[in-house]
Amino acid sequence: MDPQQEYPEPRKNNSRVLLWVALVLVLLGINGVLFYLNTQKKTENEQLTTQVQVTDNKLQAQIKEFEDLKANYERQSQDLQKLGLSNDSLQARIAGINADLLKLRSFKAGSFSVAEQQRFKQRALNLESQLKKKDDQIAELKQSNENLYTETTTLKERQNKLTDTISTIAKTNRDLSDKVTIASRLQADNIHVSVLNKKDKEKDDDKEEFKAKKVDRVKVTFNLARNDVSPKETKQIYLRILEPDGAALYNLSTGGGTFTVDGQEAFYTMKQDVVYDNTKQALNFVYAKGGDYKIGQHTVELYEGGALMGKTVFTLK
């Protein structure tokens, strides 16, 4: 074969190489474009994910803000209830916040638009402003109540002190009155007993002993002691003659009756009204039993104003 006929074969091989090179370059270009597109897509997805996450964070923050507002408004409502005030307006606001929370929780991931964010943010600002104003009003009311409570407590303390003072004065007056009453009681001095027989003959025995069968009447003499405290007025003087067994001689027909001694009803033998003049005036009682006297020791008691003035004894044999 002629060597010149072999030259075209290398040219054919070169064409194939160029074709493969071109094919590789095309494939590399396609891969590059695909890599670029994938990278862009990934970046966009990451940006979208970040944007959704940011939006969700804002949504959760807004929900938290409205939950805090609700808690604060409920706290205000309780404060007003403690103060005894109406809270209808607060209940209406709490209901509105509940509706806002329901709306916020209904948003799906990434659907919390900028417009909605602005709207809820502005509403939260308005609610926060109203909350602060109401807190200031409640604080003023609490301070007023505290001041009123302090004033009331002070007045009660003063009233209690005044009541205690009045009670002390009243007790002092009662004690003083009791002392005056005791001090003003009359006393009987020089009490002396004698007896009269049927012939009006009076017998006076230093031993205060007499024969019973000869006694017709009993005579008791005494003096009203001086007392500068006791008022000068009419006094009722009571005589009690107690027989040996302790029974009081008592007869309505001879001037007897009942009176009160230490809160108890007692019988008296005789009584007389005397105008007390603080001159140690002398008085006497003459008692006729109208029957036989018992043998034994008799007791004579003198009273004025229900208090014992003095007493003595005499014996009948």
Automatic annotation (TrEMBL):
Keywords: Coiled coil, Membrane, Transmembrane, Transmembrane helix. Residues 56-83, 117-158 form a coiled coil. The chain crosses the membrane at residues 17-37. This is Chromosome segregation protein SMC.
